Amino acid sequence: MLRIINVKEEVLVTLEVIADLSYAWEIIDSYTPFMQKGIKSDPSMVIKLRATFLKLATALDLPLLRINQANSPDLVSVSQYYSTELVNYVRKVLHIIPETMFGVLARIVELQTTAIKEVPTRLMKDQLKVYAQLDQRYEVAKLTHSISVFTEGILMMKKTLVGIVQIDPKQLLEDGIRRELVSQVMRALHNGLVFNPRAKPSEIVPKLTALGKVMDGYYRSFEYIQDYVSIYGLRVWQEEVSRIVSYNVEQECNAFLRQKVQDWQSVYQSRAIPIPTFPPLDQASVNFIGRLAREVLRVTDPKTTVYVDQSNAWFDTKSHVEVINLSLFALLRKSVGTPGLTGLDRLLSFIIVKELQGVLRSLEKGMVKDKSWQELLANMSKNLQPVDGIVQNVGRTYSAALTKVSKTWSVFLESMLKIGQMQILRKAIAHELYTTAKFESKDLVSALQTTNDAVLAEIKAHHRDPSKPYPKEDNPLLMELATYLDWCGLYQPISKIYVTTRPIGNLPLFMMLFTVTHLAKFTYVSSQGGLLSKRGVDSIDGLPFVLGSFTFLKQFHQDNVTQFLAYLGQYVRSLLEEGSVSVAKFSDASIETTNILAYLEILVRHCNVSRKVVLNYVPDYIFDQFRSSS
């Protein structure tokens, strides 16, 4: 005690200077490899490093000294900053544990996917030796034990207060595992989804199959070790895979946005668990989700393939060989999961929006602002009145307009085919999501359907009687419900509104002329129940044409669809009326009306158009004749 009393102030200052570890703030990083090497060889070394981390906390004293003396309100924020920097360094040092764990896990993945056979539900006694595989199972057990040793090592470090931030070793371990998982999965997706656009046949099926095996290996092994590392493996897996896909979809969709979401602005990016980014591998796509979407679009291009609705498959137009079928979407689910399917669907929606915006611009320039077009359509609209009547001279009334449409709107046709193609893909994705959700979570799907029906009933009741309640703007119900419905495939792509539009005069008449013009390029094949392009004509596909043209019409007021059907019905009735005069005219009329009736049948079957509405314009007996003759 006497000695302590006699300690001079200079000695105290000297001790304080020596004990201050501020000088180590910059050079400590050079010791990181040695610390990590020690942890790797002996995980219990983490307990000793706890003292080092606590000592490093004294480095915070010097920067905070003057701020504290001045009683500045910035003390908390500055302390928070330096404490966070120190915690990040601790994360960096201890990241060797999850990194090593995943190195061991890679071997477990290999053993579980290639070496160890899955034991069947019922096993015959004589097959017991075959499925035992004792050596391989012993190796898996040994590797699992080494993982649990690393887990035990990091959990030995109790909760530690570093500056004003508390370090929870369990949370630190989970964050480290999440970080390594994100890195591994992102690398697998980046390397696995690279396609050669000139490859015939497409590489998409073998690539997705290989990626599916890799992802399944990670999933099964992660599920296997979750109890040994004391984390909720399934939750971590679903959250991180969903975050990876959502981030990449967001970055890919930036190409379609005016205000782009930068990496640092993304809600899916994290400093503690960053999603790695890779340079683009082609000019069109930013990342793997873009490459995947464009490969699917290339494989199902309506110029080179035909979609046969009865087979749910795409066939090559020249060789008539099946290119791809609905099993592709099951493969997509196995390889990129439900988040990947939902992300792909969202990206396709953005591409549809881009196509529709381009169509509207070209229509505005080429038809709305063109006086000759406006005069032609206005005069024709007068000549066709009343719409529920019959046109006496079909050839003279329609020929000039039909010829003009066929010569000037080739770009419009191309966009309609692209939109229709993407609508078929979106319907297939929705079907895969719905069947998966129905199988894996029947109660959730039923609850969502009931909630959706109830909300729609209340909204309809409000529109009938405004005094009844309606969800307010700040109510998150509609937004959250829509997200759940999208993830479970409970939506109809054809019924969605993709762009806001202004009214366009005589649009239904123009669309009727456009439809009739291009339907002449098709022939109805009753055995396939669809429209196929005629030989010698440009290769175009029937179903994408129908869905694309209807999607475009759907963006406008619903009266446009009704008026469009009225014009089509009038044209069919007029053709048949004129065809009844002579055999030659009847032959030409029957071919043309067959295509139009097939078009209307597809609208009823695929586009949620009520048959009752169609029958208002085309009598039922005409459809009966069409069905009996086909």
Largest sheet: 3 strands, antiparallel
Number of strands: 7
Query: What shape does the CA trace take?
Result: elongated
Domain module count: 2
Average pLDDT metric: 84
Q: Which residues form runs of ≥5 with pLDDT under 50?
A: 581-586
What is the number of helical segments per DSSP (H or I, 4+ residues)?
A: 26
Based on secondary structure, the structural category is mainly alpha
What would you say this structure looks like, in words?
This protein is mostly helical. It has two domains: 18-265, no CATH class; 305-441 and 488-629, no CATH class. The chain has helices at residues 2-5, 9-19, 24-27, 32-41, 45-56, 61-69, 75-94, 96-115, 128-132, 134-155, 169-192, 204-229, 233-253, 288-299, 327-368, 371-383, 394-408, 410-440, 442-464, 477-487, 507-519, 542-554, 558-579, 583-606, 611-615, 620-629; strands spanning 160-162, 165-167, 305-308, 313-316, 322-325, 522-525, 530-533. The strands form three sheets. The chain has a three-stranded antiparallel β-sheet with strand order 3-4-5.
